[in-house]
TrEMBL record:
The lineage of its organism: Eukaryota, Viridiplantae, Streptophyta, Embryophyta, Tracheophyta. The keyword Aminoacyl-tRNA synthetase does not apply. This is Rubisco LSMT substrate-binding domain-containing protein. GO terms for biological process: methylation. Residues 1-11 have a biased composition (Polar residues). SUPFAM superfamilies: RuBisCo LSMT C-terminal, substrate-binding domain (SSF81822), SET domain (SSF82199). Residues 305-427 form the Rubisco LSMT substrate-binding domain.
Amino acid sequence: MCAASNSDTIVKSSEITSKKEEEHGDLKSWMHRNGLPPCKVMLRERPSHDSKHRPIHYVAASEDLQAGDVAFSVPNSLVVTLDRVLGNETIAELLTTNKLSELACLALYLMYEKKQGKKSFWYPYIRELDRQRGRGQLAVESPLLWSEAELDYLTGSPTKAEVLERAEGIKREYNELDTVWFMAGSLFEQYPYEIPTEAFPFKIFKQAFVAVQSCVVHLQKVSLARRFALVPLGPPLLSYRSNCKAMLTAVDGAVQLVVDRPYKAGEPIVVWCGPQPNSKLLINYGFVDEDNSYDRMVVEASLNTEDPQYQDKRLAAQRNGKLSVQTFQVFMGKEREAVMDMLPYLRLGYVSDPSEMQSVLSSQGPICPVSSCMERAVLDQLAGYFVAKLAGYPTTLSEDETLLADPNLNPKNRVATQLVRLEKKILKACLQATVDLINQLPDHSVSPCPAPYAPILKCIRPSVYSHHLGPMELSLVLGNCQRSKHNQIKDVLPSKKLRETFISFVS
């Protein structure tokens, strides 16, 4: 998972021959020799998408299992946690509360251990991590390791910015490693002359960090120094499924897995990694779950700080459980509920009359006085936001479907396309809900209220609101957003002024 003493990269070190693996025994054999009690699982292989890389392992049932069976119980002596890495629970808590993540500490430890080669107790486990190379269930690495060209698969998705931000965070942690190393108890004592940034270039640290990220387990009801754990037989050898409730749990002296469903011998064992959206699954584990009930997108709205009544509006928002900069979670299948949750907040931003603002402050609920023109302005702004977000993707939904139907599609392109396709479905459902509300307005001839201090929806320039979309035009956009590229805008938006405005904010 990281550099060996001969400066091998993570890719080269994964090319270990089967002969060597047989010579030293597989991961499970090593675990049994070192205290793993009899269990009900085995390791099996699935091929890698790249013929240059070896197949990846996964944990499967070795016999028929019933819900409630203990699949395996890994003793603490085979679990890597910060208290054992740093030799002191107090130091472990100090380091991780001083802005250095548990992942960075664990990655640094395994990097040093790998330099010991076969002398390291953890050699068989590190060899398995090298083989996996931080790849998820589709044998795809996290986007944190993708090239710039490969990241373009995520153009239009907020996940791309999240990947770049996470990469910058890893770089910051790397720059702090030397200071931390001198504080790190057993690490400093065991490797007194191995200064981290001299021993490992950033590229190798990043690879190790991503590999650890793909397999770390978050244990509950344990001390802070033990909450992040590397558990052999755990992820990424275990598959993730959003509708599964089985989790690795800390019990007396061990970490065990109790299955939540029956398995036939040979079937892959699945676990739950918490309520993570697909963007997190892709960044952390390199895959997307098409049936993820926790999948969601975020819409960020904020009150206009230039508004003379900003402080009063901020107070009114706080009294109703909202912030001056508010994020709204939009869950797959619950888009209409999310839109309805946004409306009171956006209406507040449109209040301009001081007497109306005082009425809002004196009321006990989140209700603003709503006029026909205000409601039209709020819904137009929201519809314009969703249209612009959809137009930000370089591919359409129909093009995504065509790509995914290609069995030879590059696996990184495949998982990226799966992600953006699901995001577009959420955005399109939000737009549909907004259009439905516009169509329910009693008078479509009413123009939107002027809004000199309209609330701000993140990533959309103010010019988006310079002309409102009529219900007919919105319906056309919604029905044709799969093909509304610049050379086809005329078919979708008949108004020349609207086309010019639309093109100005999507280009």
